[in-house]
Amino acid sequence: MWQRERNAVKCWNDAxxxxxxxxxxLFLGAFxxxxxxxENPVQAPAIAVADLPSNKLVFPGDRKDWDRYxxxxxxxxxxxxxxxxxxxxGGSHIQADMWSMELRSRLQNVVPGVKGGRGFxxxxxxxxxxxxxxxxxxxxGKWTSVKNVTRADTAALGISGYSVTTTDTLxxxxxxxxxxVYSGYQFNRVKVMHRMDSSYTVTAYSRDPLVHIESNEDPKxxxxxxxxxxxxxxxxxxxxRTAPEQRHFTLYGITLESDDPGFFYHANGVNGASTTxxxxxxxxxxxxxxxxxxxxxxxxxxxxxxxxxxxxxRYERNYEQLIARVKExxxxxxxxxxxxxxxxxxxxxxxxxxxxxxxxxxxxxAKHGCAVWDTFGxxxxxxxxxxxxxxxxxxxxxxxxxxxxxxxxxxxxxxAMMEAYGEHLKSADR
Length: 430
What we know:
Blueprint: H1 2-30, E1 57-58, H2 64-79, E2 83-90, H3 92-95, H4 99-108, E3 116-117, E4 119-121, E5 135-139, E6 144-147, E7 162-166, E8 170-177, E9 187-194, E10 201-204, E11 213-218, E12 223-232, E13 235-240, E14 249-257, E15 262-269, H5 275-279, H6 284-291, E16 295-299, H7 302-305, H8 312-329, E17 334-338, E18 344-345, E19 349-350, H9 354-368, E20 371-373, H10 375-379, H11 384-390, H12 403-427
Parallel strand pairs: 2-15, 2-16, 3-15, 16-17, 17-20
Antiparallel strand pairs: 1-20, 4-14, 5-8, 6-7, 7-14, 8-13, 9-12, 9-14, 10-13, 11-12, 18-19
Helix pairs in contact: 4-12, 6-8, 8-9
């Protein structure tokens, strides 16, 4: 029965996709993105405090990686086949998954029938820190955490920048979806990334006795994979000591996968993380290779720029290493660098390093073929965070944004990315 219902939904989505593709081509090819009319669903929203003419991707250097990425979008958006994986790294702007949530939602709904799936998650609640609202981790047992902003024991960290460890003999984790943005993500394959040596047995199970799950451990790549014989929307895991030599279980993250076409937007943020923090994650390349991203978005810099000892040369060298790690993990991935949001120090002094960060990213873009989205310029440049705060889009600390502010960033970046894709379509003479 479940398979017949899923096939019926697929047929309906195929019909919607055919209509959606025609509309997408019309909007991308026929409407200017700087227009203030609201008929075009992929245009930049009308945000009075934003500098809309600055809302575009800039390509200071070679575009071959982006041409390859846009060609993959052709397969997905114009033919309805394949998957596009995007990994986004940053600090607190990303951990809360509001900016990235909006971008994920916009991408997954640009054409009906090509939604994709949720992708990588980390149960931040187990680390006693703020968890994205959109998925709910419920767990048992006592867990200790490590994150990449600390110097101790970070060598084993991966793309989440966090780990949690338990020595309890039996613990469990349930992950379900909630909120008005997500109707619920279905998946039929899960990879649990964890420490392999002296590790407990991890088991996936279901409350539905008809669901059959097969498991396979991959020690070389550092995960246990579970394959379901049907799609489910809630994850149940059990971590259990089954042998005397097992001493603990350390969890690094989880991927929720499906065979459906669409976007998978993997958001990875750590409160307070800088470029140095992310360079501490020695499992980064191995785990990113499991994701196989087509596009990597780096939004790392706000914490570097707030360091009293900020040094532009050191910051650039750190980013060079991060870019090299991406290329090692996924050689064909395109890279997007987003400059810092405008901010103040202690709510009193404008952070003047924002423009320096932008200059560094432009140099990196020219050297490595990265695109740059000038968040600093799109916000309105120096002192713009005060206008965003007055408009209810930024918090009183003049560093972080409110949920509407992060939603605005997601909408603006989505429009800039779609404009770049529209230019690709025009250049291809479609």
